Amino acid sequence: MAAEVRLVPCLSDNYAVLVRDPASGAVAVIDVPEEGAVIAALEAAKWKPTHILVTHKHADHIQGIPALKARYGAKVIGPRAEASQIPTLDVQVAEPDTVEVGGLRAKIFDTPGHTAGHICYWFEQEKLLFAADTLFALGCGRAIEKPAAVLWDSLLKLRQLPDDTVVYCGHEYTLTNARFSLTVDPNNAALKARAAAVEKTRAAGKPTIPSTLGEEKATNPFLRADDPAIAEAVGMKGAAPAAVFTEIRERKNSFKG
Ligand SMILES: [Zn+2]
To answer: Residue 66's Cα: distance from chain center in Å?
Structure first.
């Protein structure tokens, strides 16, 4: 039986995700931006969390953990490299570890860039990727703690996964990302169609999450920095992909969408 998944909007633009293994009843919460919305979603579903999977140390991903841990006693799993900054961790993981949630199993990817210790969780059987602030729908996280070239390598790691992988990211930034993407990949028909769909989805107040990795590969410029069309559009024909990636990441930092 496939995993059951619930998206939980938190704070102003964050997402937590609930993943349940129907066979065992085990439930994982991926990141806890706040306890209120997450507890409400768990209570509404009548689910009890057994695991909390943490992607990185930023407060808007971990600040609800103590309340959840106290209420449910869930086991908290997260990045070894950031363990000293995530005091609630019970289990420290890094690539190539795996994590089990009942009968579900996730592989860990080290994806440095946004933070040095950021990890992603890939449930291969269920075709689910929890990419948090590494890969966004039509975007990627800011390269805060590592050079953009390091983040590019992390994104290449995720890009190897199958097209039908369902991607959950940590924020609803898709509308601004779509508008920015059109500035660096203006002739991409798939991107234009997706951007129009995103405008409608957000105008209706609905989440744009999840997407598929196939969609991201076709339309997300941060996964396409090695496409000659993008290099040309940003005036860097023939440049190394990591340099093109760095340029578009810097342009996005100052983009007012
Ligand atoms: Zn973050």
So the answer is: 22
